[in-house]
Each structure stands twice: as structure tokens, then as C-alpha cells.
Specification:
By secondary structure, this protein is an alpha/beta fold. The chain is built from 29 helices and 22 strands. The strands form five sheets. Strands 5, 6, 7, 8, 9, 10, 11, 12, 13 and 14 form a ten-stranded mixed beta sheet that branches. Strand 6 (about 280-285) and strand 7 (about 285-295) form a beta hairpin. The longest helix is centred in the first third of the chain and has 41 residues, at about 190-230. It is extended. The N and C termini lie far apart (about 120 Å).
Length: about 900
């Protein structure tokens, strides 16, 4: 039985089977949606008409199949499928949003760690400060944080690994072994990876905070344990440098059971004096002599060293005023040893024409911040028996008046900084021969300085109250008869300014002569000294008279007869043979010979070639030489910058180490004492031989050979090559660079020496490091490996020349950085960048050389060169340089160079 259906869209009629009644379908003619009506057809007996093609059954089966496919896709993909017969195209806005969907994961992946970093640091500092009162609590909280973070990271790691395995084993392998694939995976699978990634990112601050607290707590626990076991129960002020260790290290009995036997100063015998080492000129105008005191160690004040500074030249008997000083950096109850670090405090007074004698104080402490109770107590007892250094000062004055006839006994004064200022006030109160006293930032009230630790000090240091009472300058001010000058800064954090302010009030009440100079800034160190030392010298001239005139280059020759014979008997150093390439500028002749103070090492098994000598010229000769050198340097630059383009391009070369254009490298060689404890004094490469063999000589020879072979370029007047290998003596780095600049050098090799402790023997070893410095920029271009004298000596005994190997290594490195090459090819943009770099560094000569080279090379037009040169020379001179004649160029550059030199550039 069939149902007759009429399409309401196209009007066509057709029949449908009975089972499709009430269902929907499509019209076979117009494909419009139709519904088969619910019609009941009564059965009849007559035969049915012929059946049409059963198309509706096929349509119904296809619809059922599609419905099953939809359900299957919905189960698998959990989303509504798109009808296969519909073709959907997203609008432009939706498509753009899909393309920008990677922006969020990119921001999280790359900016997330940057945002978390300050949070990590802040949380670490906050937690460390909160728990700072207890290292144990810090350790517990830190361990909790660290453990929690590690567990969280493990969870996140397994989370990520499971997602990788679910996708493929290949992704897992690439994630761990292919660089940057993890970042790519996070970005492209952000929906799956965002949770474990953000979880890990959140754990990072906890991780860092935990491990920071663990580190801080470990340090605190170690420090507290160390303090409990070895350090005293009171904090001693740190010394400015490390003196020599105490003479004895025997552990004394408890303080309560010990009484220190202190003899009166008058009953302590005077020490014997060893013949002093030969004097030498430390710097132009200053003669330095070292004297040693020799007596039994049980006698207070009888051991130690004296540093004696005398104005160079010849002086009459009793013609020099003398200043006495102790070393700074001690505590209120221990002594101090002298070292070369004290030179800078003493030399200004010698340059003013006064003699200076520095003395050591019994009871030096090697390292107050790390000393044990026993070491503190041993040093304290030695200092106490020496009357807090008064015995040492008495011995120094006795030595000066008996052994140095040129010192005037009526013009004695004392000065000192910090603890040495306290010592100066004590000496002024104890010895009426002192006519003036200068103290910088002195702890005048010892009870005030130690009041925070006095309870602990009483348990370690016997009779400490008696010591502080007897040797505090505050309690001896009534005995000070000479005028006193005090300097102090309000921002002094070591010795408060109240020490000096209170002293001024007490002196005024007693009607004593005291002058107090105050400053808002200056601190406790070199800034205070450098600012007020000239004022102290002017003040001393009021009470001691003017200082003596200096004769640089002449060793002071007015000491005792034994010294006179030693100074007169010094052999003259041989003069270096004349170089075959004699320069136009004469080399300064040697001044009065300077004896070498270098100790000789054992004779090597294999002889080394004789070292060339380098006699030091007098200041007048050196000044004349520098003037001629600067003039030659001026002429070189003028000749290059004013030359024709073809000639200029031919002369210019490139220095790889400093990355700049040049026309040649003129070398200087010198010695720099990085560690002032290096003894004996080393001034030139010649003095390195006993320690390190012929390393310095071979480096100098390599540089000379390189100049001859053209590895370092060539200046216009090659016969003046001697300017390129000037050897100047020891000094500071700033002095080296200034001396090199005065001589027109381009680079210098600096032999830096420092002291090291060698092996279990604990012997002092000398270590050498070479540094190559570009004078133009002041930058250290290359630093060598270290070479120790002990290794050189051991290898020499085995027949191995380490000096030769080290020299070859250094020569290769110097050539690598300083051997000149053809200038690299650059474009106009890079040329502008190079010029801007040198102009920013205010190196105008280098800037102008680059401008001229780029113009001559054709990299810039005349207009570009004119614009750049105007920034350096000004419009008028720049026009003369770029477009003028040869004469105009020379006139403009010559005037400009003269102005630079007048300004000290």
C-alpha cells in the first residue's frame, strides 16, 4: 500500500510507501523538504497498480546512515559535525582571530620567565629577611620550600611526559634532545601544555627562595660555629691591611688568672740596630732607607723595622725637621706592622722637605676579623708591655737622633691616621721633645670605642680596664704641651666625629692649643687624607719651619759614617750600549747610580744571557726627554692627518686588539707592583731576573724585533724607533698610562707582580702576570697566565727554561692583539658608527684619523667628511682640512693639536 504525496514547492505528485507516513524527506524533482502525510488506506481486493521506483526508501536509508555517522563523529570528536553537504567559509574577523591564537602562548613562554624573575628575587629576599634572626629557622623554611618546589617540578615533568607519549614517542625524544623543540611544542600545543607550564612557572619563586635560604642559613651556621670555636666574643675593628703575625702563639691561661708584668719605660733597655740597607731614591726627591732593630724578643719594643724617608740631596747637620708616625689600621689594644701600603701616607711630608721615620708597634695581629681569642690575647700582652707603642716610639726617636745627624732634635713632630692618630697623641703626651701633633680621624676616647664589647673583652684580655685607662689619649690630655691639629669628617662610620668634638671642648676648657678641621664628607680613608694633608703640611710649617730643598737624583748623604761609606762604595751601573738605530732625540744619561736591592737567588744550572741595563734618568733629563717626545708625536700626527689621500691610505693600518686604525704601535715596558708586599723593590725588567729569569728581557727583545720586521707598523721617522720601547720604572697604573701618554706611546706591556704563598712550606712566592694596555683607550687588551718564581727556579734546576716558554707564549699573544693588519672593508653606515664610538670616548685624534681615512678611501664624500670633521674641529678648520690646500690643512691641524696638548689631552 502506498501514500500519494504532492510537493508543495513544485506541485509534482508521487507515491511513498506506507511505512514512511509522518516522516520527512526530499522531493525528487526540486529537492525541497516535504512531509509524508498520515493517511490510512483501507485495504481493497482489486490488484494494485504497477509500483514506481522505490527512491524514497533509498533516501531514507541514506539519511539513517548519515545519522549514524554523525553520532560516531560526535562520540569520537565530542563536537557537532558539519553537514557534509554544506560548505562553510569563516568571515574575515574569525579567520584573523584563528591566526592570532599563537600570540597568547608566545607571550607566556617568552615573557613568563622575565616576569617571574623579579618575583623570585623579591620573595627570596623577603623570606631571608623574615627568618634572618635564626639560621636554624632559615634552614627549615628553606628546606621546606626547596622540597616542595622539587616535588612540584617532578609532578609537572611527569605530566608533560604523559602528554608527549600520548601524542608520539618521536615528540618525547625531540622534546628532550632537540634544541628549542620544547618551546615550539609549548606554543603549538598550548591547550594541552598550558596547565603544566604555568604550574612549573609558579613553582620557580618558591624554588629560588628555598635554595637562597638554605645557602644563607648554611653560611650563618658555619659562621656562628666558627665564632663559637675560634673567634673572640667581642668584635674588633678590621685592620686596613694585614700586618705580620704575632711573635708567639702560645695559648695563655684565662684572663682572670693572669697578671701582666709591665716595666716602667725608663727601665726598658734600648735595642741594638743593624746596619741599614743601602738607601735608594724611591721617587725623584725621596731617599728611602730601611733599618732593623735587633734585640731579644722578650724586651718590649726591641724588634721591628723602621722606614726612614729623607729629602734627596746634601743637607747640613741638624738641618731637617723630622716627623714620626706609626702604621694605621690597628685596634685600640693591639699593635701594627709596617708595609709598603704606608708609603702613600708618608711621602707627601717628604716631598715638602721633612724627614719621616715610621716605626712598628709591638703586638701586630695578622687578621683581626679572623683571629682567635688566644691570638688576640698574645698581641694584646705584647702591646701592653710596650706601653701601647710608646716604647717603640722612644726607640725610633733615639735612633733618629743618634744615627742620622741631619735631623734637628729641636724640630720633632708626630702625625698619624686612625689608630696611628691615637698613637701620635699618646707620643705627644709622653715625650716633651715633640713640638707639634697632627691626627686624622683618631679614636681619642678608648673607653668609648670599646664600651659595646668591654664585658667580653674582660673575659679574654687581662687588665683591660687598666690598659684603656692608662693609654687612652683622653686621659693624658693634661700632659700634651705642644699644639695639636685634628681632622675629622662627619660621615666617618669607623671612628665617630664625637671623639674630636669632645676633645676640642676639653682642650678649650684647659686653655690648650688645639685646632679642629671638620668636613661633611671624607669618610675614614684616603679621601680624608688626600683632602687635608696639604693643610697639615702648611700648619706644620708654622711650628717646624719650612722644609728643606730637594735635589732629585742625589741620594741623601748626611747620615752616620757607616752609611756614608756604604753609599759611597756602591758600584756604578754600566751604561747600556748605544743602539745601531740611534734616534734623533737623545736618550737621557743615567743619573747618580741607584743600588739594586734585589736579593740574589741560587746560581742556576744553566747560565742566562746578560740583561740590558736601564739606568733611571734624573727628573730634569726625563722632563726634557718627554718634551721632545711629545713634539715628535705631534709632528707624526700632523704629517699623517695633513697628507694627501693616496699617501694617507698607504700608511694607515688596523690594530685587532683595540679595534682601531693606526699608523704604528710604539711600545713601552714597565713593572707594576700590584701587591705592595713584594720585596725587595723592583723597578725595571732588569730587577725581575733573580725571581723570574729573563722573561722581561725576552719580551722586550721580541717587541724590538717586531718593530724591525714591521709587525707593528711604521711611523714616518723610523730612526726614532727608540721612542717605541721606552722602559719606565715601577709605579701605579695611572702613572704608567700618564707616562706612556707623555711619551706618545700607543701600547705598553705591564709586568704585574704579586705575592703568593707557595705550598706547605708557606714561603712567599712572587707571581708575574703580563698585561698589554692600549694607551689610547686605557683598556687592558690582554692578560697573561700567571708565572711563579718557584716554578721557574724548580724548572731551571731540571734544565728546563720556563722563562723561554712563557716568553714565547706571551709573544704570540701580543702579536695576536697588536700585530697590525690591513684595515677591514666597511660601508658608510659602519664608518659613521666607528667615528661616533671614538667621539663618544672623547678621543679626538682617533676620531679625526678615522674621518680622514674614510674620506681618502672614498667611503665618504667630501660633504660627509666635512660634516663629521666639523663636530671635532669646528666649521672653519674642518673646511680647511677637507677642501683646503696642503698648507691650509697643516695650519688648521697644527693649531688644533697645540690646543689639545695645552689642555693636557
Amino acid at each position: 500500500m502506498r501514500i500519494e504525496v504532492a510537493c508543495e514547492h513544485c506541485g509534482k505528485q508521487f507515491s511513498a510507501p506506507l511505512e514512511s507516513a509522518g516522516k520527512h524527506g526530499k522531493c525528487p524533482a526540486c529537492q525541497g523538504a516535504i512531509r509524508v502525510p498520515m493517511v490510512v488506506v483501507e485495504p481493497h481486493d482489486h490488484a494494485a497498480p504497477p509500483r514506481q521506483e522505490d527512491w524514497f526508501a533509498k533516501e531514507l536509508a541514506a539519511e539513517q546512515k548519515r545519522e549514524q555517522e554523525r553520532k560516531l563523529l560526535k562520540i569520537q570528536e565530542k563536537r557537532q559535525p558539519v553537514l557534509p553537504e554544506l560548505e562553510y567559509e569563516a568571515p574575515p574577523e574569525t579567520r584573523k582571530r584563528d591566526e592570532d591564537s599563537l600570540l597568547v602562548p608566545i607571550l607566556f613562554v617568552f615573557l613568563g620567565p622575565i616576569a617571574v624573575a623579579p618575583i623570585s628575587i623579591g620573595l627570596s629576599i623577603l623570606m631571608a629577611k623574615i627568618t634572618a634572626f635564626s639560621p636554624t629557622l632559615q634552614w627549615a623554611v628553606g628546606a621546606l620550600f626547596a622540597f616542595s618546589a622539587v616535588v612540584g617540578f617532578l609532578i609537572a615533568t611527569f605530566w608533560i611526559i604523559s602528554a608527549l607519549i600520548e601524542e608520539s614517542i618521536t615528540c618525547l625524544v625531540m622534546y628532550f634532545f632537540v634544541p628549542f623543540y620544547a618551546i615550539y611544542y609549548y606554543i603549538t600545543r598550548w591547550d594541552e601544555m598550558q596547565r603544566p607550564y604555568l604550574f612549573s612557572l609558579g613553582l620557580t619563586p618558591i624554588f629560588f627562595a628555598g635554595f637562597m635560604m638554605l645557602g644563607v642559613s648554611a653560611r650563618g651556621l658555619e659562621k656562628s660555629t666558627k665564632v663559637a670555636k675560634s673567634k673572640p666574643r667581642f668584635a674588633a675593628p678590621a685592620a686596613s691591611r694585614a700586618p705580620s703575625p704575632p711573635h708567639t702563639t702560645v695559648v695563655p691561661p684565662p684572663a682572670s688568672e693572669t697578671t701582666i708584668d709591665v716595666q716602667p719605660i725608663d727601665t726598658i733597655p734600648l735595642p741594638r740596630f743593624t746596619p741599614p740597607r743601602r738607601g735608594y731614591e724611591m721617587e725623584p726627591g725621596v731617599t728611602f732607607i730601611r733599618a732593623q732593630l735587633l734585640s731579644s724578643a722578650r724586651v718590649p719594643g726591641s724588634r721591628g723595622t723602621l722606614y726612614i724617608y729623607l729629602p734627596s740631596g746634601r743637607h747640613e747637620k741638624h738641618s731637617l725637621a723630622c716627623l714620626f708616625a706609626a702604621p694605621a689600621g690597628a685596634t685600640s689594644f693591639t699593635g701594627m706592622a709596617l708595609s709598603s701600603a704606608d708609603y702613600s701616607e708618608h711621602l707627601p711630608y717628604v716631598r715638602a722637605g721633612y724627614a719621616v721615620i715610621a716605626y712598628e708597634v709591638d703586638g701586630p695581629l695578622a687578621s683581626p676579623e679572623h683571629a682567635t681569642d688566644a691570638q688576640f690575647r698574645t698581641a694584646y700582652e705584647q702591646c701592653y708591655r710596650a706601653h701601647a707603642g710608646l716604647v717603640n716610639a722612644r726607640n725610633a726617636i733615639h735612633y733618629a737622633l743618634t744615627e742620622i745627624p741631619i735631623i734637628d732634635p729641636e724640630r720633632l713632630a708626630t702625625f698619624g691616621h686612625s689608630s696611628a692618630g691615637r698613637q701620635a697623641l699618646l707620643l705627644a703626651a709622653n715625650d716633651p721633645r715633640i713640638k707639634a701633633c697632627v691626627a686624622y680621624a683618631a679614636p681619642i676616647d678608648c673607653e668609648l670605642s670599646t664600651r659595646d664589647h668591654i664585658a667580653d673583652m674582660r673575659q679574654v684580655l687581662p687588665q683591660i680596664d687598666d690598659y684603656l685607662t692608662r693609654f687612652s689619649p683622653k686621659n693624658r690630655e693634661d700632659s700634651i704641651q705642644c699644639p695639636v691639629l685634628l681632622f675629622h669628617a662627619h660621615d666617618d662610620s669607623i671612628v665617630p666625629v664625637q671623639h674630636s668634638l669632645a676633645a676640642k671642648e676639653r682642650f678649650q676648657s684647659r686653655r690648650r692649643r688645639l685646632t679642629l678641621e671638620l668636613d661633611e664628607r671624607g669618610g675614614h680613608g684616603q679621601l680624608l687624607l688626600s683632602k687635608w694633608t696639604p693643610r697639615a703640611i702648611d700648619w706644620l710649617q708654622t711650628y717646624l719651619g719650612p722644609g728643606a730643598s730637594l735635589e732629585p737624583g742625589v741620594i741623601a748623604d748626611a747620615t752616620a759614617e757607616s752609611w756614608k761609606s756604604q753609599v759611597a762604595g756602591v758600584a756604578t751601573r754600566p751604561t747600556a750600549p748605544a743602539s745601531p738605530r740611534s734616534p734623533d732625540i737623545p736618550r737621557p744619561a743615567p743619573s747618580t747610580p741607584q743600588p739594586s736591592s734585589v736579593a740574589t737567588n741560587p746560581t742556576p744550572t744553566r747560565p742566562t744571557p746578560a740583561a740590558p741595563t736601564n739606568p733611571r734618568p734624573s727628573p730634569q733629563e726625563m722632563a726634557s726627554f718627554k718634551s721632545a717626545s711629545r713634539q715628535y708625536f705631534h709632528d707624526c700626527w700632523l704629517d699623517v692627518l695633513a697628507s694627501e689621500p693616496e699617501q694617507l691610505v698607504h700608511r694607515v693600518r688596523y690594530q685587532p686588539g683595540a679595534e682601531r686604525l693606526t699608523v704604528g704601535t710604539r711600545w713601552g715596558i714597565g713593572v707594576y707592583l700590584d701587591d705592595k708586599a713584594v720585596q725587595p723593590k723592583i723597578d725595571t725588567l732588569n730587577d725581575l731576573r733573580p725571581h723570574l729569569g729573563s722573561i722581561g728581557d725576552r719580551i722586550a727583545e721580541h717587541l724590538r724585533q717586531g718593530q724591525e720586521e714591521g709587525r707593528y707598523g711604521a711611523w714616518m721617522q723610523t730612526e726614532n724607533s727608540m721612542l717605541r720601547d721606552i722602559t719606565f720604572g715601577g709605579g701605579t697604573y695611572a702613572q704608567f698610562r700618564q707616562a706612556a701618554s707623555d711619551l706618545g706611546l700607543d701600547a705598553f706591556v705591564m709586568a704585574t707582580l704579586s705575592t703568593k704563598i707557595a705550598g706547605l712550606s708557606r714561603k712567599t712566592d712572587v707571581e708575574l702576570r703580563l698585561r698589554a694596555v692600549d694607551v689610547v683607550t686605557g683598556e687592558v687588551v690582554w692578560t697573561s697566565q700567571g708565572m711563579r718564581s718557584s716554578k721557574v727556579a724548580a724548572a731551571r734546576a731540571s734544565g728546563i727554561d720556563l722563562a723561554d716558554q712563557f716568553a714565547n707564549y706571551a709573544a704570540k699573544e701580543l702579536d695576536k692583539h697588536f700585530a697590525l693588519e690591513p684595515p677591514p672593508n666597511v660601508d658608510a653606515t659602519e664608518a659613521h658608527q666607528r667615528v661616533d664610538k671614538w667621539l663618544d670616548k672623547k678621543i679626538q685624534r682617533q676620531t679625526l684619523l678615522e674621518i680622514r681615512y674614510f674620506q681618502a678611501k672614498g667611503i665618504w664624500t667630501d660633504e660627509e667628511a666635512l660634516a663629521e670633521a666639523t663636530r671635532v674641529l669646528g666649521a672653519e678648520r674642518a673646511a680647511a682640512l677637507v677642501r683646503g690646500t696642503d698648507k691650509q690643512r697643516r695650519t688648521a691641524i697644527d693649531a688644533w693639536l697645540a690646543e689639545l696638548e695645552a689642555d693636557g689631552v
